[in-house]
Design goal:
5-stranded antiparallel β-sheet, alpha+beta, 4-stranded antiparallel β-sheet
Length: 336
């Protein structure tokens, strides 16, 4: 029986090899693309979670400090013979802010109401100062540890009626990373200033004040006797509470602040967003959809007088989130 001749083929032809290489390359490219997309998705989700955690921390701490504004130690609140307004000199209000301002000590502890051009805030961010006393034990002179400063440390007990602590929130550039950072600066009763970074990557801090019976940049009219504290009827910027050349009227306006609305823009590291160009951010919320050509402003609180009410679109590939919350004050804001 005749056998079949032995085949002399020992490999692939050049065409077959090229086709195999092309197919393998396509598979490899698809696998790498899928890996990149999956990694980008993981990075974005991880960054979004971190930004939410940072936002919760900022909101929790700021709420507690703002709620302390106007707190007076029981010793001085009960004994009405003690007065803050000694020698007819009105003290700085419990809640006071500055529009588009970085931290300057003269703004925090002085009677200045005007922000100079050299003290403008990062990304038009605002500054908030909250004043209060610490509570005391029944025996007096010892703090009851109920009040804290913005670093979370227990406040000391006041020695004199005019002793008040303050905590200030503002944005500054980190000296180690160069990132915009939510900062906490506080003074204790002895006049010692301390500062501590709270959260890195806070790009913008915007603040509005819920007031009653306040017309922007105008001295308030007196309320009727025995009038209950009305709820806020409008939200104003810090500079709108200032009455030029009239410090007493300015303080009277600040004493009518009943709530504080905070808007934050937080950002992640470069490349954390799915896209390179990140859309504009609105610290106080957005009211219309993209492509809406109506005259309704993009932001609920947008104003051409307040450039910080929106943060322009960026091309740095950073994931950004906004956080907005309102704190209603529980303590009277007029000095005893």
């Amino acid at each position: 029986m005749q056998t079949q001749p032995f085949s002399r083929q020992r490999g692939l032809t050049l065409v077959e090899l090229l086709v195999a290489v092309a197919l393998a390359s396509l598979v490899a490219i698809a696998a790498v693309a899928s890996l990149i997309v999956a990694r980008q998705g993981f990075t974005s989700v991880d960054t979004a979670t971190q930004l939410r955690d940072n936002g919760r921390f900022a909101a929790g701490l700021m709420r507690r400090i703002i709620l302390q504004g106007g707190y007076v130690s029981t010793q001085y609140a009960i004994d009405r013979s003690h007065q803050f307004k000694l020698d007819a000199t009105a003290p700085e209000p419990y809640i006071k802010g500055f529009n588009n301002a970085r931290y300057v000590q003269s703004l925090a502890i002085g009677t200045t109401n005007t922000v100079g051009s050299s003290a403008r805030g990062i990304n038009n961010s605002d500054m908030l100062v909250v004043r209060y006393q610490s509570g005391q034990t029944i025996t007096g002179g010892v703090t009851d540890a109920a009040m804290i400063n913005c670093s979370g440390a227990t406040a000391t007990a006041p020695v004199n009626v005019g002793d008040r602590m303050f905590s200030a929130f503002h944005i500054a550039t980190s000296t180690t990373t160069g990132e915009p950072t939510l900062m906490c600066t506080w003074f204790n009763d002895s006049g010692t200033e301390s500062r501590q970074p709270l959260i890195e990557g806070v790009e913008s801090l915007q603040i509005l004040y819920g007031t009653y019976g306040v017309t922007p940049n105008t001295a308030p009219t007196a309320l009727a006797a025995n009038t209950l504290t009305p709820p806020p009827d409008r939200y104003l910027r810090a500079d709108q509470l200032v009455v030029s050349g009239d410090d007493a009227a300015t303080i009277a306006n600040w004493e009518r602040v009943r709530s504080v609305r905070i808007g934050l823009v937080l950002r992640g590291p470069t490349g954390s967003a799915p896209e390179t160009t990140v859309p504009a951010q609105y610290p106080f919320g957005k009211t219309k959809q993209s492509g809406d050509a109506s005259s309704v402003p993009d932001s609920m609180m947008a104003s051409t007088d307040d450039p910080g009410s929106s943060l322009a679109a960026q091309s740095d590939g950073r994931l950004r989130q906004t956080l907005t919350f309102t704190v209603h004050l529980r303590n009277p804001q007029d000095a005893l």
